[in-house]
Amino acid sequence: MPIESVLFVVTRGDSIGGAQIHVRDMSRALQKRGLRVALAAGTTGALQMELEQSGIPHFLIPGLVRSVNPLSDLLAVRSLKKVIREFHPDLVTCHTAKAGLVGRLAAFWSGVPAVFTAHGWQFAEGIPLWQKLIVLAAERVLSRMTRRIITVSSYDRNLALRLGLGSSRKIVLVHNGMPWRERPSAPDSSGGPVRIVMVARFQEQKDHACLFAALELLDSLPWVLELIGDGPDLSRWKNWVARRGWSERVFFDGQRLDVPELLEHCSIFVLSSRWEGFPRSILEAMRASLPVVVSDVGGSREAVLDGKTGFLVPAGDPKALAAKLETLILNSELRRSLGSAGRLRYEEEFTFEAMLTRTIAAW
């Protein structure tokens, strides 16, 4: 039976992170193709408002929160079942771990097929052992209620297959893709300090401590750092920067909706992480013709060609990160050549249209 209506489920609707951007862009694209589309989320905010501007309805799901709370989770499942009865989708597609739990339970008990997109497993390398065990146990049950599991990296697909979460037919690889944007006319700055940028939430997954330790080793070089994102650790690092005396060279932009424009005024993209799925921010930087320096975790090496479009560095290694940043800070021609190669790789492998086509085929 052809799919004519899709309900997207995501935990948070008040922020714009990787999963939210994926849901936003997919929703708009499917709507343009004539499908009925709706969003269900545990909070309202930036994502909900952007989709409402496109005429895509939003359903608030009380109890759908990131933290584990059996009572809240059951309330969320009950609320989502009501939404499914009201919207009557042909498919429920779930994004982020908690939405994957609530969404698949509600869909299964409503008799509607569900697809789960894993934007990075919560039992991957680098995640605390207790968390791995809990999530893996839950996923072994939930995978049986799922029509397809879409992973955004080969790393995640191979991990899921190795742990027995489904067959090679059920677990499908679809790399992330970014909407088309023309190649920037001036991808690198001329004169003044080199502008380094990192787009990431201030939370446990992202290793801002490693980045700052690396930059301390490069204190005498001409750089400034732009940090885009919010999160629970933001205040801590603002205070650290003030104490370090870097307030004139480290800038905190918070959550922004104009990231593509901001990237086009930067010279180097960095992503320091403890674990990842397949970071959209890397693709966004490549689209902007930026050389990238990223932690070699999860599916990052599936996007970055080490030494050709940027550099991969061991996670949690400030000296290795500093060495690659220093190389790029001091060599503008290398920045341009790696950035141009990254842009070409985006055009050939990671456009949104390619991702959309593969996702629909996987459903």
Mind explaining what this structure looks like?
- By secondary structure, the protein is an alpha/beta fold.
- It has two domains: 5-177 and 351-362, Glycogen Phosphorylase B (Rossmann fold), CATH 3.40.50.2000; 194-349, Rossmann fold (3-Layer(aba) Sandwich).
- It is built from 14 helices and 13 strands.
- It has a seven-stranded parallel beta sheet with strand order 3-2-1-4-5-6-7, sandwiched between helices. The protein has a six-stranded parallel beta sheet with strand order 10-9-8-11-12-13, sandwiched between helices.
- Helix 5 (129-142) links the parallel strand 5 and strand 6.
- Helix 4 (97-110) packs parallel to helix 5 (129-142), helix 7 (208-216) packs across helix 12 (318-329) and helix 10 packs across helix 13 (332-349).
- It is globular, with a radius of gyration of 20 Å.
- The protein starts with a strand and ends with a helix.
- The model has no long low-confidence stretch (mean pLDDT 93).
CATH-wise, what's the superfamily of the largest domain? Glycogen Phosphorylase B
Determine the mean pLDDT.
Answer: 93
CATH topology of the largest domain: Rossmann fold
Number of helical elements: 14
SSE layout and pairings?
Layout: E1 5-10, H1 18-32, E2 36-41, H2 46-53, E3 58-60, H3 70-87, E4 91-95, H4 97-110, E5 114-118, H5 129-142, E6 148-151, H6 154-162, E7 171-173, E8 194-199, H7 208-216, E9 223-228, H8 234-244, E10 250-254, H9 259-263, E11 268-271, H10 280-287, E12 292-295, H11 300-303, E13 310-313, H12 318-329, H13 332-349, H14 352-362
Parallel strand pairs: 1-2, 1-4, 2-3, 4-5, 5-6, 6-7, 8-9, 8-11, 9-10, 11-12, 12-13
Helix pairs in contact: 3-4, 4-5, 7-12, 10-13
